[in-house]
């Protein structure tokens, strides 16, 4: 090909990754991007500063109307989108804010996914259509106050009482908890770990909101309190017993994080690039100085490598070939690199980098939570270490 017919270099897509997308992929991406630009971006700094998401129920219904809730699932009003399309949606949502992507991830990849994969036909019919429409918000109760990376040690317990189940325990750091209409709660039983669909309003079930967060401030985070919560026999998810149930859900959600983290990174990179072109020092834009250009080049390389990795994992998921270890690979790399991009972008913006007039510090603090939840750095390193060596370092 002659250089004269090469497409122009795009600073916002330097590798030409848009060429990997189908027309349908672009349509999904553009729909979510336009929604986020209209409904989230103008308000997110205020919501973050106030530490609340006051219109979460309204946003959930709107996300349902564009097919973003449970979008990889089929039937029950779900979009049946590809893994790549779901990933693109996560990227665009997290480019607006990690809290918005978390709302969608927990709804679709955790609560809805658990019901869709492991629920009874009656449970699916009861909950999934309304959750897909955003009429009912769901949450996922696995983490406990003293139990994080080792869910097998959970203390929440469900015991049989006649034909009923009775649940007692606590769950912590639960996204959507206090606004959820249904909680998928995992508990120890005499048969092993089981999942339960717990409707909000069940006696003994409470979901107080967690305040005073310095990360994911535009997100509803709660504790789940279960004091003698009595449920009928048909509340248990019949399709799974043991940790493979919740861990399978987490793998699905982690995949979305691989994409989402690159959305936060993209927002910070683009803010730094735009700022460097107009901010002047010593009589010229700071983008004209070698050290600033080195920062921008390094950010662009890591950002678009991460997006390329996400694309690759998405294609593998669509082909039914994506292993959990490969998701760990993506989550470990992309979140870690996204935080590095945010921190470098902050230095380009100087003092303005800490202002909520720019997205950088908000994304940086949000990503500290993303780095920890759904598998810490250390856990994903050990997952990969075990896969590489064949030796298990989790337990001595």
UniProtKB/TrEMBL annotation:
Transmembrane segments: none annotated. Gene3D superfamilies: Acyl-CoA dehydrogenase/oxidase, N-terminal domain (1.10.540.10), Butyryl-CoA Dehydrogenase, subunit A, domain 2 (2.40.110.10), Butyryl-CoA Dehydrogenase, subunit A, domain 3 (1.20.140.10). The keyword Flavoprotein applies. Pfam families: Acyl-CoA_dh_1 (PF00441), Acyl-CoA_dh_M (PF02770), Acyl-CoA_dh_N (PF02771). Keywords: FAD, Flavoprotein, Oxidoreductase, Transit peptide. It comes from the Bacteria. Residues 139-229 form the Acyl-CoA oxidase/dehydrogenase middle domain. Residues 242-388 form the Acyl-CoA dehydrogenase/oxidase C-terminal domain. Its cofactor is FAD. Residues 22-135 form the Acyl-CoA dehydrogenase/oxidase N-terminal domain. The keyword Flavoprotein applies. Belongs to the acyl-CoA dehydrogenase family. This is Acyl-CoA dehydrogenase.
